[in-house]
From TrEMBL:
Belongs to the F420H(2)-dependent quinone reductase family. It comes from the Bacteria. The gene is ddn_4. It is an enzyme of class 1 (oxidoreductase). Pfam families: F420H2_quin_red (PF04075). Gene3D superfamilies: Electron Transport, Fmn-binding Protein, Chain A. Keywords: Oxidoreductase. The lineage of its organism: Bacteria, Bacillati, Actinomycetota, Actinomycetes, Mycobacteriales. This is Deazaflavin-dependent nitroreductase. Its EC number is 1.-.-.-. GO terms for molecular function: coenzyme F420 binding; coenzyme F420H2:quinone oxidoreductase activity. It comes from Nocardia otitidiscaviarum.
Amino acid sequence: MANLFTRVLRAHQWLYEKSGGVVGHRLLFGNPTLLLRTVGRKTGVERTNALTYARDGKDYLVTASNGGSPRPPGWLANVKAKGDCEIQVGTTRIPVTARATYPEDPEYARRWALVDEVNKGRYTAYQKQTSRPIAVVVLSPR
């Protein structure tokens, strides 16, 4: 079942990218989805990930859940190494600065509630599956 879900996610991202954002923003479960473009910290190659997001004022929030895996997603290490990256929301590309936040951040709980609500409580379920604190990444337009 996990393999099927992974294939669906990849197809969604492919469609989002190939349509230039015309299709894909709200395709999967109706969740708002953005494309996060980072540069691989080791390879220097551009990487793209489709991620559910929430808004917090002018900022966009994404969650480094990796489906509750013990390991964070690779894109998290990329944004920690180089915070300047780009997102695409629908057809609009936006340069952003990424900053990972964790439970010790005073704004973390509020941000977590925003992203968890958009994702219908799935992030809370993922957090229960792993002992690592799941980062909420703040993407601030530059």
